[in-house]
Specification:
By secondary structure, the protein is of the alpha+beta class. It is built from 2 helices and 4 strands; from the N terminus they run ββαββα. The longest helix has 9 residues.
Amino acid sequence: MYKILGGDGKEYGPVSTETLRQWVLEGRANAQTQVKAEGAAEWQALGAVPEVAEMFRAAPPAVVTS
């Protein structure tokens, strides 16, 4: 479970990893959104959370053959 720090400065949650993923897809959270795991002392960027980090990795460029 996680809490996020919204753009309005308010804390939201606790929410599950799946909810975080949904919020990213909806544009409500991004890689820089501050998040704190349950029991953690520090906030961190959502892009650093292993469970959702892959959502922020760029797709490899397409290979074009001639």
